[in-house]
Amino acid sequence: MDIRGYVESNAPEFFAALKEWLTIPSISADPGRHPDVRRSAEWLVAHLQATGFPVAEVWETGEGLPAVYGEWPAADPGAPVVLVYGHHDVQPVEPLEEWILTPFEPIERDGRLLARGASDDKGQVLFHCLGIRACLAASGQSAPPVTIKLLVEGEEESGSPYFADLLRRERERLACDVIVISDTTMWAADVPSMCTSMRGLADTEVTLTGPSRDLHSGSFGGGVPNPLHAMASLLAGLHDVHGRITIPGFYDKVVALSDEERDLLARLPFDEKQWLEEAGGSGATYGEQGFSTLERIWARPTAEINGMWGGHTGPGTKTIIPKQAHAKVTFRLVADQDPKEVAEAFQAYVHANTPAGLQSEVTLGSGVRPCRSPIDSPAVLAGRRAMERAFGKQVLFTKEGGSGPEADLADILGAPLVFIAVGLDSDQIHAPNESIDMSLLLRGAKASAYLWEELAASASR
Amino acid sequence: MDIRGYVESNAPEFFAALKEWLTIPSISADPGRHPDVRRSAEWLVAHLQATGFPVAEVWETGEGLPAVYGEWPAADPGAPVVLVYGHHDVQPVEPLEEWILTPFEPIERDGRLLARGASDDKGQVLFHCLGIRACLAASGQSAPPVTIKLLVEGEEESGSPYFADLLRRERERLACDVIVISDTTMWAADVPSMCTSMRGLADTEVTLTGPSRDLHSGSFGGGVPNPLHAMASLLAGLHDVHGRITIPGFYDKVVALSDEERDLLARLPFDEKQWLEEAGGSGATYGEQGFSTLERIWARPTAEINGMWGGHTGPGTKTIIPKQAHAKVTFRLVADQDPKEVAEAFQAYVHANTPAGLQSEVTLGSGVRPCRSPIDSPAVLAGRRAMERAFGKQVLFTKEGGSGPEADLADILGAPLVFIAVGLDSDQIHAPNESIDMSLLLRGAKASAYLWEELAASASR
Fold first, then answer.
1. A298 to each of A294, A401, B361, how far by Cα in Å?
2. Of A14, A168, A177, B405, whose CB has the highest number of CB atoms within 10 Å?
3. Chain A, 229-258: which have a CB under 8 Å from a chain B CB?
C-alpha cells in the first residue's frame, strides 16, 4: 500500500486517537491543570509505544512540566538522525463564553476538528505517528529510513522556562542531523508553504534621571534638561528618515534576503487591506523603505517602543519637569544578529545620546536568538520535496516575525531547522474555537511519510 | 515725623497685629479650615477700619472663599487710583513634623518672624497699612495722595478659581490706574529688586491612536506605525538643535528683551552652581541658545513635556505595539503670546506631523496669560523710586517663570502692574518653617509709604 492509500485508510483511527488526546486539558499556564499536563504526557508515551516506537519516555524538566521523548532507530546505523519538535501543552481557554463547544470535548464540523490544541500543537505532533506508519507500510520495512527522535515539550505555552536546560542536559541523546519543527503555519490551505526563519528579540529598559525631585516648570522650565524630552529625542533618533535603525553597526550581521527569497515571498498572495484589518484596523503600513510589508515583518530587524512613561499621567495639568523618564524598548532580530550585541549597542547609543545633566541606565533582558533555514540547504530542499509530494503543487516559503524555543534547539543541538506544519492563521490558536482542517492534517501525515524518504535520499546523494 | 521715623516707632504695634492675624489658620485648600479663612477676612476688615480705611468690606466670591476690599479715597478726586493686590489665605502645613514651631503660633528668631503666612502673603499685605499710616503722618494730611484700593483674595493658594469672575463682577468699583502686586520676591536682602514680568501657560494633552488593540510586535512589528514612536518623534521635533521651538509662528508675538533689560538681569549676582542645587541637583543647565539661564527661565517661552505614557509600563517585557500614546505638554509663555493661539498652533503642529495610519487628538486647557511691566513705564519708574528710597540703593529687576492671577488683574481691569514685595526665595513659602525678615517688612512699609507719594508725583508731571 502506498503512503497516500495508507494515510487515507487509517484516517479514522488517527482522528479517534487525536480526539482522545484532545480531551486532556493540558493547560501549562494553569497550576490546577498540571496533573492533566502529566496525563497528556503519559497518553503520548502510550501512543508512541502503540505506534511502534522502541523508546518512549516521560522526561522531567527541572521544576517544570514533563516532556515526552520517543526514539525509533533506523535499520542503518549510518542513516541520518532527525529530531521532531512539538509540544503537548495547550493555551488557556478563557473567555469560555465565546466558545461554541466545550474546549476539551472535540467535535467535527465542516471538515474541521474543533478543540483546544487541535492545531496548536497536538494535531501537528500526532500526524507524524501516522506518517511514520505510512512510510513503513509503503516500504515494507520494520524501521524507518532515518532515525527518528521525537521531543514533545510540556511548557511551550508558558515560555519554555526549563526547555533550554533540558536540551543541554540531554544533548547526547538528542544529537541529530536535522531538526523538524511542527508548530507553525502555512500561508493558506491552497498555498502550501514552509517557514524558513523566525525573528529573535533583544529586550531592554531605559531610565533617564534628572533632578532628584519633580521640578516646577514655572521656576525651572527652559533652564534644565527635561528627562521626557531627552527620552523622546533618544527614541525618535532610533530611526532615520528611511525607517532604518541608526544604531551604529546594527545591520552589520543581518543576512540579506536573496533575490530568490524575495521573489518567492512576492509570490504569496498577500492582501494588504485584509492584513491591516487584522492589524487592529491600522490605517496604513509603515516601515523600512525599500522592503515590502511581508519583508518588513518577517525578514528585517526592527526597534519597537513597547512602553513609555514618566511625569504626571493622571487627570488635569501638573506643570512639572519630571525627575525621570522610562521606556521599554525591544528589537526584533534576524539572523545572524546577536541579542546581546544588539542590546549592548543600544545601551551605548543611549549613553552617547544622553544630554549633559541627565543620567541614563539601560537594563538588558536575556533575549531570544533569531533562527534561519537557508532555502537552498539540503534539509530544507528535502522538506520542500516532501511537502510538494503531499500537496501536489509548488511549496512557497514564509517566515515568522516572532519565535519560541526554536533557536535554542538549533543552537544547543547544532543542527539545521526544517519547518513542516499545516496549521493556518485562521485556526484561531490561542483564541476561542480553535480548530484545524482535517484534510490538512492528513496532508501533514503524508508530508511526514515522504520526509523520512527524502531525508534518507538526500543524505545518500 | 518722617516716614522712616514713623515706621520705626510703630513697628512693635505692626508686628503685634501681624502676629495676631497669623494665628488664624486660613488654609484655603482644607475645607475644614474654611471658617478660619472667613475669620481671617473679618480680622483684616477690622484692621483696615482701625487703620482708617473709610471702606472695608468682606466680598463673597461665587462658591468660593471671601476676599476683602478696602478703599481710601484721595482728597483730590482727580488723583490716580491705585489697586493693591494680595491674599490672606495660606498654604497647608504638612509635613508638620518638619516644623520647629507650631505653624500658627508665630515666634521671632534672629530678626525673623516664623509662621505660616508670614511671607506669603499676610506680612506683605499688612505692611501697606503701616505704609499708608506713615505716609499720612509724614504729610500731615488725613487722606492719602492717591486713592488706594485694596483687594485681598482668599483663594490664591487654591488656584484663584473664582477670582476672575469677581474681577469682572466688580470691575467698576475696582477701576484703577495702577495695580500694585505684593506677592512676589526680591533677589536677596541686600539686592532689592522688582519683578517685571510673569510667564503664562498654554496647557494641552495629546493622544495618538493606532490599532484598535495592542498588537504583537512579532507579528506586526516593523509593518505598522507605532504610536509611541510617533509621539517620541512629534515631541522630539518640538525643538531644533538650537533649543528653539519649531512650531510655526510660535515666537511671532514674543516681546524681545531690550538691551537695558538684559543688562539689568546680568547684574543680578546669579550663582549657577547653587541654582542647579536648588533645581533638584540637576547636573547641567540646558535651554535655548543665546540666552542666559535667568533669561531662559524668566523671559523666554518654553515647551515642557510634563507627562508621557503608553503601552506596557509594568514589570517585565511585553512585546507589543501599543494602541495609544499620550502626553501632557505645556508651554510657558511670555508677553505678548496668547495661550489660545499657542495651544492651537501646537494642535496644528501635531496634526500636521501625525504619520499616516494614526489619529491624533489634542485637547486644550484654559491657559494663563503672561504679564509684563515695561521697566520704562511711569508706574514702574515710580515704584522703583519708592523702593530705592526705602532701601537706599539701586533696585534691580527680576522676572518670574510662573504666574498666578496677575494677568487677569491687568487684563480685566486694564491697568499696568507694579510689583512691590520684600519676600525672598529663602522664606520657605509653601514649605515648613516659613518665615520673613522683619527688617525687610519694615522696608516694605517704607516703600509703600513712598509709593503713594511717587505715584501722585508721577501723575502730576
1. 6, 5, 32
2. B405
3. 229, 231-239
Q: B224 to chain A, minimum CA–CA distance in Å?
A: 5
Cell of A285: 503600513
**Scanning the structure block, which residue is given the C-alpha cell 496634526?**
B351
- Nearest neighbour of A282 by CB, restricted to B210, B238, B285: B210
Distance (Å, whole) CA A58 – CA A98: 34
Give the residues of chain B that fall short of pLDDT 70.
461
Q: How many residues does chain A have?
A: 461
Question: Cα dist. A357→A225, A234, B287 in Å?
Answer: 7, 15, 12
CA-to-CA distance for B66 and B38, rounded, in angstroms? 6
Mutate: best of B204, B215, B217, partner A, most A CBs <10 A: B217
Domains, chain A, in order of start with CATH, read 3-198+370-460 (3.40.630.10), 200-254+301-364 (3.30.70.360)
Contact B217, A304 (CB under 8 A): yes
Specify the 3-state DSSP secondary structure of B412: helix
Instruction: Using a CB–CB cutoff of 8 Å, tell me whether A315 touches chain B.
Output: no
In terms of C-beta density within 10 A (0-12 exposed, 13-18 middle, 19 or more buried), how is residue B290 classed?
exposed
Measure the CA angle with vertex A221, ends B313 and B193; round to 5°.
Answer: 155
pLDDT at site A459: 82
A272 touching B (Cβ < 8 Å): no
User: Beta strand pairing status for A112-114 and A435-437?
Assistant: antiparallel
The gap between the terminal CA atoms of chain A, to the nearest Å, is 26
**Would you put residue B320 in left (φ > 0), alpha (ψ -120 to 50) or beta?**
beta
Residues B201-223: b if buried by 16+ CB within 10 A, e if exposed: bbbbbbbbbbbeebbbbbbbbbb
Residue (of A206, A208, A187) closest to A196 by Cα position: A187
List, in sequence order, every residue forming a beta bridge with B196; answer none if it has no partner.
Answer: none
Confidence check on the interface: ipTM exceeds 0.85, yes or no: yes
| pLDDT of res. A461 | 66
Task: Pinpoint the alpha helices (H) of A178-258.
Answer: 217-220, 227-236
Q: How many residues are there in chain B? A: 461
- Rounded mean pLDDT of A109-125? 97
Q: Within chain B, how many helices (H) and strands (E) appear?
A: 14, 18
| Contacts of residue A130, Cβ cutoff 8 Å, sequence gap at least 6 | A7, A10, A14, A442, A445, A448
Instruction: Report CA-CA distances (Å) from B206 to A326, B354, B357.
Output: 18, 11, 16
Q: Return the pLDDT at B461.
A: 66
pLDDT band at A94 (very low <50, low <70, confident <90, very high): confident
**Burial class, B428, CB count within 10 angstroms (exposed 0-12 / middle 13-18 / buried 19+):** middle
Residue B315 pLDDT: 87
Sequential DSSP letters for A344-392: HHHHHHHHHTPPTT-EEEEEE---B--EE--TTSHHHHHHHHHHHHHHT
The Cα B363–Cα A21 span in angstroms is 56
Percentage of chain A surpassing pLDDT 70? 100
Residue among B85, B89, B60 at smallest CA distance from B159: B89
Q: Is the peptide bond before A95 cis (omega within 30 degrees of 0)?
A: yes
Going by C-beta distance under 8 Å and a sequence separation of 6 or more, which residues neighbour residue A456?
A: A74, A79, A80, A145, A146
